[in-house]
Specification:
Residues 340-353 have a biased composition (Acidic residues). This is PAC2 family protein. There is one protein chain. By secondary structure, this protein is an alpha/beta fold. The chain is 43% helix and 17% strand. The chain has helices at 12-18, 46-57, 121-135, 165-168, 184-194, 216-230, 237-256, 258-275, 295-316, 321-344, 347-350; strands at 8-10, 32-38, 59-66, 82-83, 88-89, 97-102, 108-115, 139-148, 158-162, 198-207. The strands form 2 sheets. An 8-stranded mixed sheet has the order 1-3-6-7-2-8-10-9, sandwiched between helices. Helix 3 packs across helix 5 and helix 6 runs antiparallel to helix 7 (237-256). The longest helix has 24 residues, at 321-344.
């Protein structure tokens, strides 16, 4: 195998940021890495949407590019070019890059993204592992999506994988045992785990009839998982608004097409049968031994809170519960007496009208 390092091309800033010594280590040492590869596990254009958001909403700087001429089959993943009516311009060369981003809390994290390599998987993955070891990255996160026969009217499911059991336990809504076609992310997960690195993976379940469409809901869900796992803060307002628009379009199409409506109803019934006996997945925002409260629990807690606040306000004003009861009784009594006197003096009543 050829030297994996020959695939790596540093940017001027990248070489400065990534190189260091024992006395002056790289400022990126120990940071977190996100893997975002387009490919066969990109249902709903999940990684494309997340990549677009990161590059357009967060500050970033390119560190490394990889020699895509050796990695990409251009006839299988044809690049785009623009024709302006007279000539061809703006050839979009495929690029696999490592970039450093800062989130909305000014926390740095790395993103390795681009089209999935077609060739030299072992060499490319060894090049990535050399970067991981050199920077001693603390953890790596992976997000992708697969098409499944699930309805868009139910919550998006997820299959979790990786080595961080304390974080991933109880989150999966579907955990099959199967042999499947591999992707670069999965190969890197194997190598990272063998190297003792902490890996968290999230595979979203996108409705199969939306796999080739841009489905913002998948990108929002993916970013929520990533934010909780990596401790980063990423804006999702644009994606959420796009998701609401897609929901409205889907609702209209379902209403206007008996065939689509019948399919969705059948998928809902299948989904509900599968989930009714399943344990409710826990939230990443809660510890593993806690569960998401249902509506009755939330209502009871809200009522207790309001009662506590009422008692607290009364005590703060120096008014005991006994005094409040006496005052309320007195007010009711005075109100009743006042009402009876007014009724007796009403001239309309005395006139019989």
């Amino acid at each position: 195998m050829q030297d994996p390092h020959h695939l790596i091309q540093f940017s001027p800033a990248g070489r400065d940021l990534m190189t260091g010594s024992e006395d002056d280590p790289s400022p990126l040492r120990g940071t977190k890495l996100l893997l975002l590869f387009g490919g066969h596990l990109d249902a709903g254009h999940l990684t494309e949407q997340i990549r677009y958001l990161l590059f357009n909403r967060l500050n970033h700087e390119q560190l490394i590019t990889f020699d895509t001429d050796q990695l990409i089959d251009y006839r299988a993943q044809r690049p785009h070019i623009t024709f302006d009516g007279e000539k061809f311009t703006d050839y979009q060369r495929p690029e696999i890059s490592l970039d450093v981003f800062t989130d909305e809390m000014d926390q740095p994290f790395l993103v390795l993204s681009g089209p999935e390599p077609d060739y030299q998987w072992e060499r490319f993955s060894d090049a990535v592992m050399s970067i991981v070891r050199e920077l001693d990255l603390s953890q790596v996160a992976i997000v992708d999506a697969i098409p499944l026969p699930v309805p868009h009217t139910r919550p998006l499911g997820v299959t979790t994988h990786g080595s961080r059991e304390e974080l991933l336990e109880g989150l999966s809504t579907w955990s099959p045992q199967a042999q499947m076609l591999a992707g670069m992310s999965q190969l890197l997960e194997v190598k990272l785990t063998e190297n003792g690195r902490k890996v968290t993976g999230f595979t979203l379940h996108v409705p199969h009839y939306l796999a080739d469409a841009t489905y913002p809901q998948a990108a929002v869900a993916g970013l929520e998982y990533l934010s909780a796992a990596m401790g980063i803060v990423v804006p999702t307002d644009e994606l959420r608004e796009a998701g609401r628009q897609v929901d409205r379009q889907l609702a209209q199409q379902t209403e206007n097409s008996p065939q689509i409506s019948h399919m969705v109803v059948a998928l809902e019934a299948q989904f509900d049968r599968y989930t009714e006996d399943q344990e409710q997945p826990r939230s990443l925002l809660l510890p593993p031994n806690q569960h998401i409260p249902d509506g009755e629990e939330i209502g009871a807690q809200a009522e207790d809170f309001l009662n506590t606040q009422s008692q607290h306000n009364a005590e703060r004003l120096g008014l005991s519960s006994t005094a409040r009861d006496e005052d309320e009784s007195a007010e009711e009594s005075n109100g009743a007496e006042s009402g009876s006197e007014t009724d007796g003096d009403n001239p309309q009543d005395s006139d019989g009208r």
